[in-house]
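Data deposition worksheet. Section B asks for the primary sequence of the deposited chain exactly as it was used as input, without tags or linkers unless they were present during the calculation. Section C holds the resulting structure in token form. Section D is free text for depositor observations; keep each observation to a single sentence. Incomplete worksheets are returned to the depositor.
Section A, Depositor: J.P.
Section B:
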Amino acid sequence: MDELLDKVVSLTVSSNRDRVLNTINLIASENLMSPLALRVYISDFMHRYAEGKPFKRYYQGTYYIDELESMTNELFNKLFNSRYSDVRPVSGTIANASVFRVLAEPGDKAAIAPVQAGAHVSHTKFGTLGALGIIQVELPYDPESMNVDVDKAVKVIEEEEPRFLVLGGSVYLFPHPVEDLSNAIKSVGGKLVYDAAHVLGLIAGGAWPNPLERGADAVTGSTHKTFPGPQGGVVLFNDKDLYKRVSKTIFPWFISNHHLHRIPATAVTLLEMMEYGRDYANAIVSNARRLAEELASRGFKVLGEHLGYTRSHQVLIDVRSQGGGAKAAKLLEEAGIILNKNLLPWDPPSAVQDPSGLRIGVQEVTRIGMKGGEMEVIAELMHKVLIKREDPKKVRREVEEFRKEYRRIHYCFDPRSRQVETLLDLLG
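Section C:
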């Protein structure tokens, strides 16, 4: 028993030290909480239950979380210019499921953005859509714009009459055409759902279009990607009736207790994004574009050059000449550069284990203070591993030395300020 306990502690400490301090993390779906958000995350709320909605619970003893959850929803509405929000989904996928279940019955159709244009697995017949018995209709893809083909998509919507349309996703460089397709889906009596899991922080900071302002009926999101809070989900609405129906579906259909310790950490992150989100979002997009340019200048095949490479936090590169996505991602991991292999538009679904590409996200390295010059360094380190074919273990020593200068979280309340120091003292 002692050995197992030691192993649990050792692996946890090693993970913190290695991933947080010694590697360059470019996973596009991850981020770091601020010191204050992390401290309120570790609270007694993690032991408690609060089934139902604030002030209408099925348990007693929920008065503190009632106040906090109501405040958090109000902050979401203020930051995203929405009228209604629900922070109870414990992930973006659960948020999607709750909306999908309200908008369609088993056997109904839903139109999704093409996988090449970023659709998340939860949008597809292989994920949440399929689990709910909803039939997937995939919209046409335009290779030139690297996006949904609007004209062909309108025809598909008119012919298929889906109950809802899903835009947004997990691998996309450019905003999806919400305005262009909103009228089309509504003309057949359907709704538009926008999955903002990856770009929620960019929307908060004004660096990405707000789908609610362009015709989306519901916006789902994750609170731990470009929005740098704890892992969790949220749904945003302007339609009161749809909000009520989805809220009644979140509980009891898809969750019971909704992991209450997320709530105060999410509230802190919302307040920080109100204060620093615009600078953070702009820095993310600037860094992504700079990294893409630096990689291209070193011989990497970076997607989207004719469109300016990217408008999100993501960069996609074709590494077939470097042995494919699986090999390239593994070599970079050995060098302390963490990212993921990814399907590119021309890859068949069967290539998922060894696709053509790599997906890169810069939101976490931006969070620790890296800027354009550091993107040049990262591109050079990747160049050494994948093109110059230097020993990854040698490059890892360079990575660890490079990371020594980046230990502090930026775009958040300063933990050294008198007010935050006092709050941290109060929290113990």
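Section D:
The domain at 49-259 is CATH 3.40.640.10 (Aspartate Aminotransferase; domain 2).
The chain has two domains: 49-259, 277-428.
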